Amino acid sequence: MDPAEEVYSPDMPSRLPVQDIFAGLVTSIGTAIRYWFHYTLVAFAWLGVVPLTACRIYKCLFTGSVSSLLTLPLDMLSTQNLLADCLQGCFVNKIQFLWCPTHLMVLLQPMRILEGMMQKMVQVALMLQKAKILPTQQQRKTLMKQVTLEMRLSWKMMTMMRMMMERKMMRKMDVREEEAAEANNGGQEDLNWNALEWDRAAEELTWERVNAGSGWFLVFLEHVFWVVSLNTLFILVFAFCPYHIGHFSVVGLGFEDYIEASHFEGLITTILGYILLAGALIVFHAFASLVKFQRSRRLLGVCYIVVKVSLLVVMEIGLFPLICGWWLDICSLEMFDATLKDREQSFDSAPGTTLFLHWLVGMVYVFYFASFILLLREVLRPGVLWFLRNLNDPDFNPVQEMIHLPIYRHLRRFILSVVVFGSIVLLMLWLPIRIIKLLFPTFLPYNVMLYSDAPVSELSLELLLLQVVLPALLEQGHTRQWLKRLVHAWTFTVGYVLDLHSYLLGDFEEEENQPNNNNNINPPGRHNNNNRIPGLGEGLHAAHQAILQQGGPITLLVIFMCVTLLMASLICLTLPVSAGRWLMSFWMGGAVVHELYTAASGLYVCWLSIRAATMLLSWMPQGRTVIMLKVHEWTLMILKTIVVAVLLAGVIPLLLGLLFELVIVAPLRVPLDQTPLFYPWQDWALGVLHAKIIAAITLMGPQWWLKTVIEQVYANGIRNIDLFYIVRRLAAPVICVLLLSLCVPYTVSKGVTPLLAVQPDMQILVERRIYPFLLMVVILLAILSFQIRQFKRLYEHIKNDKYLVGQRLVNYERRSTSASYSTS
């Protein structure tokens, strides 16, 4: 029972008058139309006007004719290529919004701090010069200490301001919802907001203000105007000027034919323009420094830093992964029975797609290499990998490095990275392929050709493996932990073989493994000669110097590492594929199977084998009884998992894929005079993908019974799997709904329709169109139910607004009386 009940006016009728209901309904419809018009205008401005304006201005500037400037207003109103122009304009806006604000703030803040520090130093010097005071030696030392301390404090202040700025940018995303709620409440502080105060405007800019809510329509128009102006300025400064500088240089040098043969004339010309612009800025900056034009020198320095950072970003994020991707492709040609001529033909036919795919492969390679370096840092002694940048370091900021380090250091680092990454590709890809072709001539090439006799056959299975099988393998197999233990074991072994254990792993492991009684310092079978290299006990810097002077241990360490990487690459390229081919031979016979399937099945077999071996090794010291109990426990768990997998990964996806085929695919693709063919294997594969999408949407949606059940099943995991709960609460309801969705239309079309004595054509039409028809009926019923609930809420809202007087507590006197009895 509710603790309070509504108290209505005595003159409230039993049913609301029709005119009140109609007036409330008209008011609600008017509010909905107003909000619809409001958000439609906002979406039209931000997703239509702003991107379209940016794209049309971009095309106008790069047309190179005066007539295009004169016809620009008419081009803005043109309806040709609207979607393509909007998408291109959104890309330009995204680059501008990601690049300009943050990086300009990073550029200007250190310069302001350094400028203030230099002004203080100049003021102190002028004061001493005017007073004609010659400081003593002690005063000079004190002054130098103060200057040094102030520089350190300024540098710390710069670092703290950078970190605060990054945290501030992250906090803005977190507090936007709270600010929007406060804006909806109509806070009085909104009246003091000034659009010209950029920092405060950025902090107080809420969703309602951006979208012209709460009376901010003029501010919204001002935002749109400023964004269009900034787009124009961005295109003019960062695209138009560099491109034409590069174009005039190319024409002057006579390299037009070479640039046009690259298929990327605009990109290469713009990059060349940036390079020439950077050189011109360096010359002008040196001239301004020579003639002591301080403001001009400062402005030219900022422009040079912007151009420098832009070029370095293109080099690090664009060029370096592209080089890695092409080198990976070249070194793996024999693995896929391809040639350079094939790659040249594919590049000529689709240069943009080919370039993007190679860049994507290179980015994946760089990402996994960086992840492996982070794993090495967790295993090795801190400071061993001093020559590699630590991406987890909170003080590491690549933009700051691009600003402060000279260009020759960036070029040297880039060349060194290309050499290292290219050598690793040669060691782990090209050389293993040559060894495999030498030892097993018939093993290569891999079969990766896309062929299809049925609709979406190969594509669906590849999506299934990439989206379901491989992520589940990587998640459930604890691959990272296994790899970490394997690296630790290899480092431990090699460290003791080469007497580098203290250098690689440190002495803390030995101290932890020492017994409490230190009587036996040298246990049998272990050589305690880790300090044979001078300097290993004197710190990491001394150890670096000692190893570099000797050269022998570090050379052997590099050789062992190369041999290990080669052997690991050979195993990864041969063992999973061989196991997968052997398994597929029992199922597919002598048919040629895509190597993606063989590799995935082989990886699962290897994972299961390693998992079983590790569990048996961990159980063996506990005795035979414990092993039998564990085997019984795991056998029961495996049987439960198989039953759950058959239901959730077999039956439900098959029914879901078949229903999707009947509702959407067959009515759209198969005419009425043809018979649709159903492939259960393909329906199951597509059903798995659909089930995964539905589960993800369910977990992201509101709380209801299906979301609660899925979260509980996921929280229990495989070891604590509850078969009865899954079958009763998840599998049975879902299977019943899917079977009803499949069987009821079939029963109606095959059992009820023939009783009506319809024509054969009508019978075929009913059989083929009943599934989408019933889907539309269900959707209409759901919409009708939703509208009925909304109308009931509207009815209660009108009644409460007009006749509600207040609320009264229920059973208040009885509770107070019982409380008085208990106290007495």
UniProtKB/TrEMBL annotation:
<keyword id="KW-0833">Ubl conjugation pathway</keyword>
<feature type="transmembrane region" description="Helical">
    <location>
        <begin position="554"/>
        <end position="576"/>
    </location>
</feature>
<dbReference type="GO" id="GO:0036503">
    <property type="term" value="P:ERAD pathway"/>
</dbReference>
<keyword id="KW-0812">Transmembrane</keyword>
<feature type="transmembrane region" description="Helical">
    <location>
        <begin position="641"/>
        <end position="664"/>
    </location>
</feature>
<feature type="domain" description="E3 ubiquitin-protein ligase MARCHF6-like C-terminal">
    <location>
        <begin position="626"/>
        <end position="799"/>
    </location>
</feature>
<feature type="transmembrane region" description="Helical">
    <location>
        <begin position="596"/>
        <end position="620"/>
    </location>
</feature>
<keyword id="KW-0808">Transferase</keyword>
<feature type="transmembrane region" description="Helical">
    <location>
        <begin position="224"/>
        <end position="246"/>
    </location>
</feature>
<dbReference type="GO" id="GO:0061630">
    <property type="term" value="F:ubiquitin protein ligase activity"/>
</dbReference>
<feature type="transmembrane region" description="Helical">
    <location>
        <begin position="36"/>
        <end position="58"/>
    </location>
</feature>
<feature type="transmembrane region" description="Helical">
    <location>
        <begin position="456"/>
        <end position="474"/>
    </location>
</feature>
<dbReference type="GO" id="GO:0005789">
    <property type="term" value="C:endoplasmic reticulum membrane"/>
</dbReference>
<dbReference type="InterPro" id="IPR056521">
    <property type="entry name" value="MARCHF6-like_C"/>
</dbReference>
<feature type="transmembrane region" description="Helical">
    <location>
        <begin position="726"/>
        <end position="749"/>
    </location>
</feature>
<feature type="transmembrane region" description="Helical">
    <location>
        <begin position="414"/>
        <end position="436"/>
    </location>
</feature>
<feature type="transmembrane region" description="Helical">
    <location>
        <begin position="266"/>
        <end position="287"/>
    </location>
</feature>
<feature type="transmembrane region" description="Helical">
    <location>
        <begin position="299"/>
        <end position="328"/>
    </location>
</feature>
<dbReference type="Pfam" id="PF23113">
    <property type="entry name" value="MARCHF6_C"/>
</dbReference>
<feature type="transmembrane region" description="Helical">
    <location>
        <begin position="356"/>
        <end position="376"/>
    </location>
</feature>
<feature type="transmembrane region" description="Helical">
    <location>
        <begin position="684"/>
        <end position="706"/>
    </location>
</feature>
<keyword id="KW-0472">Membrane</keyword>
<protein>
    <recommendedName>
        <fullName>RING-type E3 ubiquitin transferase</fullName>
        <ecNumber>2.3.2.27</ecNumber>
    </recommendedName>
</protein>
<feature type="transmembrane region" description="Helical">
    <location>
        <begin position="769"/>
        <end position="788"/>
    </location>
</feature>
<keyword id="KW-1133">Transmembrane helix</keyword>
<comment type="pathway">
    <text>Protein modification; protein ubiquitination.</text>
</comment>
